[in-house]
Amino acid sequence: MSLPTVNLLTIRDLNVRFATERGELHALRDVGLDIGKERIVGIVGESGCGKSTLINAILGLLANNGRIDGGRILFNGRDLTRLDPKSMQALRGIEIATVFQDPMGALNPVISVGRQMRNIQYRSSLRNKEKDARSVAMLQRVRIPDAKQALHRFPHEFSGGMKQRIAIAMALMMEPALLIADEPTTALDATLEVATIDLLKDLQAGIGCSVLFISHHLGVIAELCDEVVVMYAGEVVERGSTSQVFNHPNHPYTARLLECDPARQAKRTRLLPTIPGEIPDLRHRPPGCIFASRCADHRSACQAPPPEIEVDNGHFARCIHARHHDENSRSRRP
Amino acid sequence: MAMFMLFCMIYLIPGDPAAVALGPRATEAMREALHIKMGLDRPVWVQFLNFFTDAWTGDLGREVLSDRPVLDVVMEQLPHTLILIAGGIGWSVALGIPLGAWAALKRGSPAERIIGIASVAVIAIPSFVIAIYALLVFAVHLRWLPAIGAGEPGDFKDQAMHLILPSLAVGLGWVGYIARMVRASMLEVLEATHIRTARAFGLPERMITYRYALTIAILPTVTLLGVGIGHMLSSAVFAEIVFARPGVGKLVYDAILTRNYPLVTGGVLVTTVLFVLINLFADLVVGSLDPRVRSRF
Lengths: 334, 297
What we know:
Chain A is of the alpha/beta class. Chain A is built from 12 helices and 13 strands. Helix content of chain A is 31%, strand content 23%. In chain A, helix 4 (113-120) packs across helix 5 (128-141), helix 5 packs across helix 7 and helix 7 (160-172) packs parallel to helix 8 (190-207). Chain B has one domain: MetI-like (MetI-like fold, Orthogonal Bundle). Chain B has helices at residues 2-12, 17-22, 28-38, 44-56, 70-105, 110-124, 127-141, 156-190, 193-200, 205-217, 219-242, 248-257, 261-289, 291-294.
């Protein structure tokens, strides 16, 4: 599986800090990832590992107490960290669109769906009638029944799954180059989750956009994504193609995370496995390996920042134990 | 319930209305005759039942001095009070909503702090104090605006000029309430997920502020104003007295001084009904602004 040469989004050495009342919080440290054109890249990690911060940093929507402290976010060759708010706003919704986790709260409750969809197209020179026609077409693509009528209805008149599909329709209406999906299926039940994933996959193929898909559901990531980025405590600990990461995890955190996936349990047990210990306090980030305090394999060398080692073509792990595939094992994937 | 309490309160006021109406030189026989005419010779509960049943048919009795139907007298004055209240709401909405929204948008700035302090200040100042000082400054010293009365009937401009100061006295305290309310709900709405979504869609900040956030943030204000009408009606009494304006407040005030009980009860009853109707109206307005409320009907 060769990686595309041209990346839509390249993030390098991104650091984000938040000023809090109890000291500065180093939320993202040296984060790097690549999203190729028309690729679906998943980010996995526990709650609080910096997934949402990363999205907000890309979108230029960090909270007022947060700031980007070094690093680059290259989107189509432009560094988003250097863009002024106006150009950033011009990018949002047209080139980068977002679907958020909570479909219940994602739509404005007092504005009709049609009006909200029309507002999103405010930059287009089409007439209102034509804008509405596009909205209807988009709603039909996400399989909203009676799409024409739906324009006159308000968000609370739809179910959670339908609201999420409407949110997806809104996000994809301007045919963005990058769709960021922040846990779009977490609030939905299992059946809807599968349906929504299928829908996203179809739409992505139809529009030809890249997707940055955030989830803590490993099964969904494996199902949907071409590549995976594993985040832990604000750092990218491992990244590579989905099969590389899932079949040959090189970072101990990834390995433990996969062991904890309920879907991978061979035996029935009373207690699901967990990773002992907790995420370190990001106000006092240890200088060395971020996972050291929870790692069974930790040595004195882990007190120094671990390098990002390329273990296979396009497969990186930030761990001193990581070895290049050829020297590490003879059992390469077919 | 309101009617029962009203009846009791009026009944418990000391003093014989017939004696006041007829003056000190009236004979015992004249007072007897008026008692019978007003029904004051009958038992209390009969008086209450009569009052209650008559009121339902719109008959609030006749006032003592001119012997005209109370309802007519009150209705004659009602438009003046309604306009005064409307002017008060106008002031409070026109100043309160923008100030509150502005304070929320400029969070942490000196402007927000000044608005916050000023809001509390105007809430704390009683409306009659505002009325008197407004009268002194703008009417007496600066002579920009007329001091007393409601203006020439039919002369719209004159009436409007006469309305500015009294309605300011009625509404200024509510500028503070509304500014604080709008600021608080605006801050809450701006944190909502759908505002983040709107930003992620690249909508202009202006559109987000005014169409996406403010339309939601003003909803509690409408309800607040509905309840606040009661407070404004009592402020209106002061404003009408200070500015010598006609109106229900002044009518009831004068009626109390002359022990013109049917007029007092009538005036208060009409005000109560007005309060209920305005609250109903406020709920309908909220319904028209918020589709979530509407769908529950």
